[in-house]
Write a structure and sequence with these properties.
6% strand; binds fe (ii) ion; alpha/beta; disordered N terminus; Rossmann fold; Hypothetical protein af1432
């Protein structure tokens, strides 16, 4: 849909993307920022601070990106004004500084900005900065949730970040850490106190984490609902959190490509499964079921899946459950290039179009147990 805000030149508001407001007088700089961010976010542009101040009651930015020297107020004065108004007091702000002089950095910090970058800014730096700020805003909101849900979200995001560091350094992951982070999640699921977890994670900007946590939560629910023994529910939950960690090896441009992957990009994407297996196998005390879940979650019953093309009875039961939840999650996840599909629609697609790929009896159980509870989140 088009945006007709006064003083704002760019359009294409898509509801499932965060909105970033860019306030910069320089047309070239504004265009560069716009081009860098367009795939991931809705962008609203303003040439001056007055245009922004006039429009702030009509828009809901996730972050403001303000050039230090923008007329009429300049960034520092603008942020001070925003901090005085109860409606805009907490708006996250990043200032684009002309230099990293001590005076500049002090001014950015004293006016109340949440962060700053020094021009010229690398595309990867601006994306990382925005992502980090979005995530700290989302994570702050988790404090309002019941304790068990807060612990589940906080513990899993921390362990996920730690996993990223271990993978980057070529170190084995510590299963004990993953297990401990998943215990509050299992407790929340078993006490039917988990919706805040699914809703709380949906605006997080690390998609691999969002997807992995949703898969872990729904697999945990699935295991609990069909009364699997406690140790299998734990394998499903921790396996759900770890099933895609090989995606940390996939280049950002492919992992977050806003659109369909071409065949060579898809081959790279598919390698996340073997990368995950390699990474998990570095750890001697990891339960086998976790490697099986991760290794088989893209296999299909008719043998057309990857990476091994396993068929029928070769497919493990827990991995069959993981394949169902993984597809269901992918269809109902919010992505930068698509709105989430309604749970009922996702299940219809799976029943009508994937019956040769997934275990239809297990899908029936999944549908029967969860349709009502899953309908309540969007
Ligand atoms: Fe996957
Ligand atoms: Fe997945």
């Amino acid at each position: 849909m088009d945006c007709n805000h006064d003083g704002c030149d760019h359009k294409h508001i898509v509801d499932h993307k965060h909105t970033i407001v860019v306030v910069d007088h320089n047309d070239d700089h504004r265009k560069q920022t716009f081009d860098a961010l367009l795939s991931f976010y809705n962008i609203l542009e303003f040439r001056n601070t007055n245009g922004l101040l006039d429009s702030l009651h009509k828009i809901r930015p996730a972050i403001l990106l303000i050039d230090e020297a923008v007329p009429s107020h300049g960034a520092f004065e603008l942020v001070r004004l925003l901090r005085l108004n109860p409606r805009t007091r907490r708006l996250p702000v990043i200032i684009l500084l002309s230099s990293d002089s001590r005076q500049n950095i002090l001014a950015a910090s004293e006016c109340g900005a949440d962060g700053w970058l020094v021009k010229p800014v690398l595309r990867s730096d601006i994306i990382r900065k925005i992502s980090d700020l979005l995530n700290s805003t989302v994570e702050e909101e988790w404090q309002k949730l019941p304790a068990v849900q807060f612990k589940a979200l906080k513990g899993t995001v921390e362990v996920f970040n730690k996993l990223a560091d271990s993978i980057a350094n070529g170190e084995p992951i510590i299963y004990d850490d993953v297990g401990k982070a998943c215990d509050p999640l299992i407790e929340a699921v078993n006490s039917d106190n988990f919706m805040g977890i699914l809703n709380g994670v949906k605006n997080h900007d690390n998609y691999t984490y969002v997807h992995s946590l949703r898969v872990a939560t729904m697999l945990s629910l699935f295991g609990h609902a069909i009364q699997l023994p406690v140790h299998e529910q734990k394998i499903l939950t921790t396996g759900g959190l770890l099933h895609d960690i090989g995606k940390m090896y996939i280049p950002h441009s492919i992992l977050n490509k806003p659109g369909k992957l071409d065949s060579s990009e898809f081959e790279v994407m598919k390698s996340h499964v073997t990368q995950t297996i390699k990474c998990l196998e570095k750890n001697d005390d990891l339960p086998n079921g976790i490697v099986t879940i991760a290794g088989q979650h893209h296999e299909k019953l008719d043998g057309t899946g990857y990476p091994f093309g396993l068929e029928g009875s070769k497919l493990n039961d827990l991995a069959r459950m993981a394949a169902i939840v993984d597809i269901f999650s992918a269809l109902t996840d919010r992505r930068v290039y698509k709105a989430p599909m309604a749970p009922e629609d996702a299940l219809s697609v799976m029943i009508n179009e994937m019956s040769r790929h997934i275990d239809i009896d297990l899908l029936g159980l999944f549908r029967q147990r969860f349709l009502d509870s899953l309908r309540t989140f969007d």
